[in-house]
From TrEMBL:
Organism: Niabella ginsengisoli
Entry superkingdom: Bacteria
Cofactor: Mg(2+)
Domain called ACT: residue spans: 260-329
Residue stretches in coiled coil: none
EC number(s) reported in the record: 1.1.1.399, 3.1.3.3
Catalytic activity, reaction form: O-phospho-L-serine + H2O = L-serine + phosphate; (R)-2-hydroxyglutarate + NAD(+) = 2-oxoglutarate + NADH + H(+); O-phospho-D-serine + H2O = D-serine + phosphate
Name assigned to this protein: D-3-phosphoglycerate dehydrogenase
PANTHER family: PHOSPHOSERINE PHOSPHATASE
Pathway: Amino-acid biosynthesis; L-serine biosynthesis; L-serine from 3-phospho-D-glycerate: step 3/3
Statement: the UniProt record of this protein carries the keyword Hydrolase: yes
């Protein structure tokens, strides 16, 4: 349901692709003359009045657990009035302290709302929950690309122990001193982007054993720096490890109506047999499966076209020699 102080004529075409019915869009409406020129608005519409959202919701008299999502104080008033059970301050476009201070939860993206309420979503984990720690001199343009993608950016100076432990991405400026202690503490780290040559300053093999993908910019060019950021994004979004300096090459396209699982394991005999045994046990139909290996690790992408239960995930994680495991979507 859309409840807005904006105008229905503008809102309807925007939300049409979300399959929201026209009758479920409540907003202000224009008045037109016979030639189709706007001559005013409907001042009898409760949304054109002070406290209009509260008035409308009282009129609708909706039942059940009602949650409100918005970025304005008029959205919070629904919670204040007791007409909704919870209020989620939506901050992707704008964050107002007067709104976030009183919210039951702050949601930087709609994916976050779906995630915390255990509702189906296009991705398994909201990108705003993926922390990217930036160290050294990194161009603002590179950081902006990651921000636009939805990652939470924290500089090395701002990073505390909690944010380091949760970090999924590290972006390191060329020539920056690599803090191996910090990387060791980052138990959720999945990818390192280094805007220099990793052969000179990093030891990719040590990260391979931990299942951490490394992308570096061997020639240290501006074009190369942008390419590193795009590879990081492609890895997080699709699982692609093309042009990684320590993983076997694998370029993947996104697919629809499937779930994509990544399994990284030590390159020893029998692991793939165990993975397929678990999938067969749960009657999972595999749409596609990719396996790439080097002398240290096996990297498996599995696309399945059936809903799964938590027990399946638990068993895949529990396979001997597993290094990292995650669900993309």
């Amino acid at each position: 349901m859309i409840v807005s102080g904006g105008f229905k004529e503008f809102i309807t075409p925007v939300v049409k692709k979300l399959h929201i019915k026209k009758e479920n869009i409540y907003a202000n409406t224009f008045l037109f003359d016979n030639e189709g020129t706007i001559i005013g608005y409907d001042d009898k519409n409760p949304l054109s009045q002070e406290g209009g959202k509260v008035k409308l919701m009282k009129e609708l008299n909706l039942q059940g657990n009602l949650y409100g999502i918005g970025d304005g104080y008029s959205d919070f008033q629904l919670r204040e009035s007791g007409l909704i059970k919870k209020f989620f301050a939506y901050t992707e476009n704008i964050s107002r302290k007067s709104v976030t201070a009183k919210a039951d939860h702050i949601t930087p993206s709609f994916d976050e709302f779906l995630y915390i309420n255990k509702l189906p979503g296009a991705i398994s984990y909201p990108k705003n929950r993926i922390i990217c720690i930036v160290s050294g001199k990194v161009p603002a343009e590179s950081v902006e690309l990651l921000k636009q993608e939805g990652f939470t950016i924290i500089t090395e100076e701002e990073a505390d122990e909690k944010s380091v432990q949760k970090a999924g991405v590290m972006l390191i400026g060329a020539g920056a001193k690599i803090d191996e202690k910090m990387i060791k503490k980052a138990s959720r780290l999945k990818v390192i982007g280094y805007l220099g040559s990793s052969k000179e300053d990093l030891s990719p093999d040590s990260y391979t054993e931990k299942g951490i993908v490394v992308f570096d910019n061997i020639k240290s060019t501006e074009k190369g720096e942008v390419a590193i950021i795009k590879r990081i994004i492609d890895f997080i979004n699709r699982g692609s490890i093309n042009k990684s300096s320590n993983f076997p090459a694998l370029q993947l396209a996104a697919v629809n109506k499937t779930h994509r699982i990544i399994h990284i394991h030590k390159n020893v005999p029998g692991v793939m047999a165990q993975i397929n045994t678990v999938l067969a046990k749960h009657s999972i139909n595999i749409s596609s499966q990719y396996l790439m290996t080097n002398n240290k690790i096996g990297y498996v992408i599995i696309d399945i076209n059936k809903d799964y239960d938590k027990q399946l995930l638990k068993e895949l994680k529990g396979i001997e020699h597993t290094i990292q495991f995650r669900i993309l979507y």
